[in-house]
Batch of 3 targets.
Target 1
Amino acid sequence: MTTSYLRKATKADLPAILEIIDAAKAYLKEQGINQWQAGYPTNQDIEKDIEQKISYVLMVDGEIAATAALWPDRDVNYDDMLEGSWRGNPEDTYMSIHRIAMSSKFRGQRLSEKMMSGLFTISSELGYNELRIDTHPKNKGMQKVIANNGFEYRGIIDFNDENEVDTTRFAYQLYLN
């Protein structure tokens, strides 16, 4: 039987997380998706997530299978939508899921559902009932993961990031009951 759980990432996890991120960048490139192709996320981004205690890893039988950052409060990238709108009060706080990636060794095992479930639980425990996430318009795999985990498509945002080639993203929202 497989044992899996979500925990906060530590500095000791950094090499494994960076390996997963690098493999995810290569996987996106293979699919012709220019998300994460200009350096982002950097090693420093991941290190900062760990230092700020917002980086999480999905452990499967003692190995790191996936990683994600769970940002509390408000994300300036979600302030202005090019198309669509958010549900709820614009002043509400929420958690944002960023830099989510699955190890190629564990891809296709439906572990993203466990990862998301863990992130939902942590959000709830921290007092947040709203989550937001975004992905590249061509990233059909991530769009499927997002939809299969109950998120609702809300519109299009644009990241103001000079390190990304294409900054248009589909934005999604979920309210926990």
Note: The longest strand covers residues 63-71.
Target 2
Amino acid sequence: MASTPATAPTGPDRATGGVQSVERAFQLLEALADAGGIATLSELSATSGLPMPTIHRLIRTLVQQGYVRQDTARRYTLGPRLIRLGETAGRLLGSWARPYLAELMEATGETANLAVLEGGEVVYVGQVQSRRSMRMFTEVGRRVQPHCTGVGKALLAQLPEEEARAVLGTQPLQSHTPFTVTDPALLFEQLTLSRERGYVVDDQEQEIGVRCIAVAVPGAPTPTALSVSGPEARIRALEAQEGDTALVPVMLQIAARLGRVLAP
């Protein structure tokens, strides 16, 4: 049987050593996720660059396995079978990151958090709590809006502006405290600044009295951020430290090592 690059899915890909059909199936799932979880075949073809016959065949297999669903409007959506995979992967991510979160907590004395962006929301996937009696606690698995949290803004800053705006949506940004930034223009100024200086601040924007410093985890396969959070006065005191114990350099160093572990 003759084969072409568009229709030869079963053999190893010579450039990468991978199986081309598997690579293309995940490419379609990623394209579907980037489209907000729902798209037509023509939209998938345009965004993935794959030929329509290949997309037809792969989508049919993904639908049969429950990883994709077809709705009544002949659009395709991410399927429910992905939920278990995502939940398990999130738990494992938190487990892999725990030694680094513990190191950050020991270095700062404050609660260390790890979060990813999922479906337009921040999802906390790991945490090591401070040993202090007054400490911050966020349940692992909790979902929050990205514009009012340190990790959320660190995640948004990793995206192209158009994609970040799509994540925020068209509705007005919700105010949680008098300090929440609800002006998109001001928020994007903060994101630009965070890229320049390497960290972002949540100054009582999610909860009164709580300050959070967050940095991106470079090299992670999906936008990932870690943070330290605690009472405002204690976090400001950490920020004022200099030398080997300076907060942001310590966080960036730990984030870089974690990123190398998580890199595909």
Note: The first strand starts at residue 38 and ends at 39.
Target 3
Amino acid sequence: MIDLGISKLALIGVVALVVIGPEKLPRVARTVGALLGRAQRYVAEVKAEVNRTIELEELKRMKETVEKTAREVETQVSATAADFEREWAEVTAGLDGRSSSASTPDDPPAWASLGTPLQPRATPVRKKKSFRLQRQAVPQWFKARSGIRRHALSGAARVARYRPKNLPR
């Protein structure tokens, strides 16, 4: 990169003052500053785009590894589930002297003969009073004394009620 010190910048400024002249120098300096700003913004945008591309590629790689791991876990779980089902069928095949495939859907389950359940029946839940019913429970005389609005006012009625008395209509 170009190494510009204070002495080099002063020399460039003096040469520019002599070559361009004092009348046009401020306008040229503004133009050069604007062009340098645009160049810096362009470089920053390019850097940001490159960083976004790199991050996107990293995310794609991470996604692929996660999907691969999920597939492996899924195959392991399905294999374990198949082994469990097979072992469960072997263990339950000898119960009650009949196989698990010989039971009919009309037969009551074995636990049905144990008796009634120990938990009582659920009682229905009472609904709470609605907000409007609770508001109506307050007496009208109390609403009038405490300033609670009892009726809705239209726009014209509200203007007429709250208009100052000393203004002409």
Note: The two ends are 79 Å apart (CA to CA).
